Amino acid sequence: MATHPLASRVRFILVEPAHPGNIGSAARAIKTMGFRDLRVVKPWVETYRTDEEAVAYATSSVDVLEASQMHGSLLEALEGVSFAWAMSGYDREFGPAIEPVREVSVKARALLEQAEGDIAFVFGCERSGLSNEDFMVCQGCAAIPADPESSSLNLSQAVQIMAYEMHMAMLSEATVDGLYDWQSRFEGEEPAGSVATEAFLEHFERAMIACGVLDPAKPKRFMPRMRRLFSRTQLTMPEIDLLRGVCSAILQPKQQRIGQKKQK
Ligand code: SAH
Known about the structure:
Shape: globular
Bound molecules: S-adenosyl-L-homocysteine
Order of helices and strands: EHEHHEHEEHEHEHHHHHH
Number of helices: 12
Strand content: 5-15%
Helix content: 40-55%
Distance between the termini: 60 Å
Oligomer: single chain
CATH class of the largest domain: Alpha Beta
């Protein structure tokens, strides 16, 4: 097999794609670059795997189209993923910091070598792109630096470019300056990933309500700001465990917990 040994840990996720033709094209785009794992979240046409247009655009990559998994939510599609990049042509106020795809690919390869788990590239709907919610469950944001006059690519063409850059980064022996700092971030400590991070944020929100920092009737932008702060730090799994310990202690002080155990 000609594909790179790390390629099986790279996922391409399409969120709410409207046109089955684009799903077929995306299947072809990733297969030509040695990738196989295509995920589709809430497609407009649920029978896309056998859709005439999808099959026609997939051509020799119908196997990838047929094997693609369909999910009910982005979080479900991110199960087992340790780092996800939202694909977008422009920055958002509360999303992760935006970086060009070439740099992202080099980091993504380093991450595959350093940490366990899959990585994912997440693409939005043709019409409206990714929602803010989808954006915020990703740890990074990758942009194809297109012409500012016309910066939005067709969905499957964006998939093709990301797949190409990732493929080239995997073939390359080169690393970029400063990468080692970033790499060492995850040395020995598993990155937290979206599922664990969402569970922590939910725990954190409950703790903040319980101690009176957050008023659920007037939440303002407390949680989006906290989310942005935590996403900038690129949390690891042990850090999530530590923070969840703090949340548990806020929700129920240790003394009380000890007391309860004694009562039993
Ligand atoms: N009208 C939408 C664009 C949808 S294009 C919008 O304004 O957001 C479909 C998807 O392709 C986008 O959600 C994004 O994931 C990807 N895409 C398109 N152009 C891109 C670019 N320049 N950089 C990164 N991703 C891009």
